């Protein structure tokens, strides 16, 4: 969801207004994803690196997350959305932690759409944490090191049990992955859009999906059915 700040700057507005409009775009994206039959939607809402931003902006982003959960949780739940949060939880303010837990608990049996919120998330941090847990289990004799393969490793990631992303969309023209789903995105298709996140709407999501459909996915193999 990149480009909130630039969207605001281009209109002479404070960055906070860009983030506020970003939440509206998020709300629309979740609705559109549900209508289009998407089963899992992951949003990068606060990265492990975002703590380097000014305290005022961090405060604004935390306030937006809290407001989002308070205002939207009932509607999400009513629409069959299951909320799951990935990222490092230690160090988050107790109020944020309580809201995250409430959202996950309330919606845990829903299955129309899983909304994965990457919050205080970093792909490298997630992989390092998984390696640490595996090392601890091996040191305690609970895990045979020889059993650690790709499938076993995935069970220690925050995304355990979720499918890999098919499509990763980044707005605002940057051609980077920025520590997002590094492991899980190994074979994802990427669509980079020039628009800033607050301008992202259902039409943008549909055109990204159209682009995805035109891609030929080989997962390291050969083109299906042709032998070439
Ligand atoms: C990127 O724009 C966006 C973010 C760092 C935060 C996105 C967060 C929200 C839309 C709202 C909070 C989260 C939830 C779950 C409600 P940027 O600030 O990097 O923009 P810039 O690159 O143009 O400065």
Q: Descriptors for this entry?
A:
228 residues, globular, Undecaprenyl pyrophosphate synthetase, 44% helix, three-stranded parallel β-sheet, binds farnesyl diphosphate, alpha/beta
Q: Biggest sheet, open or closed, and with what strands and sense?
A: 3 strands, parallel
What is the overall pLDDT average?
A: 96
Element-by-element helix/strand order? HHEHEHEHHEEH
Q: Compute the CA-based radius of gyration.
A: 19 Å
Q: Which range does the strand content fall in?
A: 5-15%
Number of DSSP helical runs: 7
Unreliable parts: none
Distance between the termini: 37 Å
CATH superfamily: Decaprenyl diphosphate synthase-like
How many structural domains in the coordinates?
1
Structural class: alpha/beta
Q: What is the global morphology?
A: globular
CATH architecture: 3-Layer(aba) Sandwich
What small molecules does the structure contain? farnesyl diphosphate
CATH topology: Undecaprenyl pyrophosphate synthetase
Word description of this protein:
The protein is an alpha/beta fold. The protein has one domain: 3-Layer(aba) Sandwich (Undecaprenyl pyrophosphate synthetase), CATH 3.40.1180. The protein is 44% helix and 14% strand. It contains seven helices and five strands; from the N terminus they run ααβαβαβααββα. The protein has helices at residues 4-9, 15-35, 55-78, 94-107, 123-139, 150-154, 202-214, and strands at 40-47, 81-86, 113-121, 167-170, 189-192. The strands form two sheets. Strands 1-3-2 form a three-stranded parallel β-sheet, sandwiched between helices. It has a two-stranded parallel ribbon with strand order 4-5. Helix 4 (94-107) links the parallel strand 2 and strand 3. The model has no long low-confidence stretch (mean pLDDT 96). Bound molecules: farnesyl diphosphate (FPP).
């Amino acid at each position: 969801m990149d480009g909130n700040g630039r969207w605001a700057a281009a209109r002479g507005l404070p960055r906070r207004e860009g983030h506020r409009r970003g939440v509206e775009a998020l709300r629309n994206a979740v609705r559109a994803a549900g209508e289009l039959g998407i089963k899992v939607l992951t949003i990068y809402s606060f990265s492990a690196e975002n703590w380097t931003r000014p305290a005022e902006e961090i405060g604004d982003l935390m306030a937006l997350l809290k407001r989002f959960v308070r205002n939207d949780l009932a509607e999400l739940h009513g629409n069959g959305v299951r909320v799951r949060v990935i990222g490092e939880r230690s160090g988050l303010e107790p109020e944020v932690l309580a809201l995250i837990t409430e959202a996950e608990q309330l919606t845990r049996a829903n299955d129309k759409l899983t909304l994965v919120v990457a919050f205080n998330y970093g792909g490298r941090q997630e992989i390092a944490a998984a390696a640490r847990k595996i090392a601890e289990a091996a040191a305690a004799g609970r895990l045979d090191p020889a059993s650690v393969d790709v499938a076993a490793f995935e069970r220690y990631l925050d995304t355990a049990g979720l499918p890999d992303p098919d499509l990763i969309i980044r707005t605002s023209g940057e051609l980077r992955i920025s520590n997002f789903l590094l492991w899980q995105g190994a074979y994802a298709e990427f669509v980079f859009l020039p628009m800033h996140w607050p301008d992202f709407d259902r039409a943008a999501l549909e055109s990204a999906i159209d682009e995805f459909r035109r891609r030929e996915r080989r997962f390291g193999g050969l083109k299906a059915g042709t032998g070439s």
